[in-house]
Amino acid sequence: MYKFLLTTDGSENSLQAARHLLSVINNYHDPKIYAVAVYNMRMVVNTEATLPAIEYSRYTKIAKKFARDAMSKTVAIFQETGIEVKDIIKEGEPGRVIADTASSLDIDQIVMGASGVGKVKELFMGSVNRKVISLSPIPVTIAK
Q: N or C terminus: which one in the chain shows less Cβ crowding within 10 Å?
């Protein structure tokens, strides 16, 4: 079995990474795909202490919904072909969460989009790619 970890944030580049993986998946024996969407509350608000609990909870729900929507778009690409994808949604610093998830699942290859959502966020997503590459000994494919 060959295990892939596909990262997604719902951006066109992350969906392109999913389409790339779909185009090469048949080259692997018994492939298994895990897709991970990571939301980072520290990117939304500085700390939980800066907001009343009710507001922090509301922002958390919005971030989780954004991650679920991103995951739905990604999984749909594979569902059209009948390929099963195990979806994972986590909170935390994206680069570290992705590297840790890949390690804990004994992933063979990580597949990521070249940049994330929005021009400002591209700075963060580019840093996510660099962080994953620096933290993980697992091969990383950057698709664009």
A: N
Each residue of 25-64: pLDDT tens digit? 999 989 999 999 999 876 655 555 566 667 778 888 988 9
- How does pLDDT run across 96-120, given as a tens digit for each residue? 999 999 999 999 999 999 875 544 4
The domain of 122 spans 2-143
Alpha carbon distance 107, 3 (integer Å): 5
Residue 24 and residue 109 in contact, taking contact as beta carbons nearer than 8 Å: no
CA distance 129 to 142: 8
CATH number at residue 117: 3.40.50.620
- Number of structural domains the chain divides into: 1
